[in-house]
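We emphasize that the prediction below concerns an isolated chain of 451 residues; any contacts that depend on oligomerization or on bound cofactors are therefore not represented. The input was used exactly as deposited, without trimming of termini.
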Amino acid sequence: MVDSRETQIEILSGEGKLSELKELLGSEYNQKEIDIALDSAISYSKVDVANYLLDIGANFSEDQWESTINCVVNNQIEGLEIALKHGLNINHNKGVLLNEAIVTAYNEKDTKVLRFLIENGANKTLIKNDILNSFQTDEILNLVYRTYKIILDGKVIGQTRLEKADAPMGVVFGKIINDNNLITYEYLKNYCLNNEIELAEIDSNQKFVITRTIENLRIISAENIEIKGNGNQITGSNDEGFEISIKGVPYPFFEEEFPHHVDEYGKMFDIKQTDSIEPLKHATESKIKKIIGGKYSLLKRLKLGGIGSMKLIHTAGLDFVDQFNSKSQSLDYLSFELRPNGLVGRTHGNNSRTFVLLKNDIQYVRFKTYKIKISTRSGIVVRNEALIEFKLKNGTLNLYLPGSSYSAVKSFFSKDWLNNKTRFFISKKDPEIVSKTEVIEILAQLLKVYR
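Result of the prediction step, given as a token string:
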């Protein structure tokens, strides 16, 4: 099968084959073709190709921001530099580049893209807590948070990022970076006893201590500004490490020094959560794109071997679809489309609906295979079937995968980021059925006995 002209243009651009691309384009190219080519060139940081395409009139627009996500995922800066020169909003789509850069920095053990984005104006308040909590190293945290010196009696004894807060109460606290191991249980106990400072709690067996306020303790920013409150405290042990807190930091100083903590607190009241998955009304592509982002580039779709799943059978989780039970007389089917930021789901039938599952809302997927033994006149035939459970932040979605689609759907769940979310299991129980049993009866048996 010969690839279409647009596909060939996209592939050549993404692979950086400038001479071949020029030959293919000739003088009869159109705007759509060179814009597709530019998108692919930026995705894979093919600078020479991108510059050539820009010279002949290719346009970069906000609609092409998916290519910059590819740059981040591929740990490449060059494509981002080109996009920034031509109008990229580095904070587009609620900071998706910055959050993806944290994941890349963690996976690649390389913070160059994250550093580049921050140095070029990425808004650190857009970083999602679940991303940072799941993908953090000291190097990443040092880029995301400012570092403060901990000074006692004029001597630097450690550092802290003050990465946590109770914003309404004016409290900031953070892990103590204790590189020189100056702060220990023995050090804190002896200092407090020698200076008549009360200890709130002390456990000599666990080497654990909680201090009261230490008057000569100061927390100093890189700009040599002291973070003052109405009290401080050090808590911890030799084994677990120590944490420092400052209480009663006054406003407006708190808001000026810790705007990210104030913003994070505000987000708690901006997010509208539901306990169920809701269908989209008038689910146009533009509406889907605003919620979950666009599709993979054509080149990426080809490399993934497609982004659509075959039909699965819904058993529970969608309120707008009937829940399966042993008395059900029919089955409700749905399928998924894989995108960089989540899944687009579509139900099938007379009243088809569209819904989305954001990647960050999917905690994990449990894919459990059952080896069904089918008794036939010729003997026992073994067929793979599966029960699939999506564990979401606000509920679950349960599906059944019949044997006819097993291989294709298992391959779908093994693609890109979805593979990292999916946990594959094989049941130790092998149910046996007769050859005439209908799919609906197999499903009822699995849900009743083996779930």
